[in-house]
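Reopening this ticket.

The earlier resolution said the output was attached, but the attachment link was broken on my side. Pasting everything inline this time so it's all in one place.
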Amino acid sequence: MSACKIPIISPWHLLGILLLLVHLLPIWIVTYFPTQDGPSHIYNAQVFKDYHDHQNYRIRDVYQLNLTPFPNWASHLLLAFLMYVFPPLICEKIVLSLCVLGLPLSLIYFLWIVNKEKLILGLVGFIDSYHYLLMMGFYNFSLSVPIFFGALGYWWRYKHQITVKRLGIFCLWLVMIYFSHFQSCFCWLFRFRSLVS
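Inline output:
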């Protein structure tokens, strides 16, 4: 019988967990997280969720649903789907938590793949997690940056071991970047082109 290996938790792991928890506090200790565009994201997601509800026929008199696959859909779709389970303010807090935790975690993942010796630079993700654009309420851009680093790390990890499954996952990363924010998608494609050539 083999013994179970207990993962060793280093002081760096504890520091990372502590920083993640501390970074969530500003979102979860207040009722309303102050962003400029945050309420409009909640409103748009609520309209999208309730659009086909027969009791809300007035919504269809005022709004026309545009299902064109353009960027900036990510936060609205995520909020709308979360609203089937949670109240709108909790949904916003979940999306904000993904934005705030996603940046340092994706940066650490990327650095872990590219150069483990530079992993300490992942702490920059904690410093920048409450950036100006997040406070403006640009949730799609704030979601796109962690996806950018996650996709870049995934590609770097498997660039010499491409399989059909990995290529499919890679394409899923690209679709997530596109539907989050066009600027991040453009930067990713530009960076990808420079890495392959």
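Reporter confirms the inline version is readable. DSSP finds ten helices and no strands in the chain. Residues 88-114 form the longest helix (27 residues).
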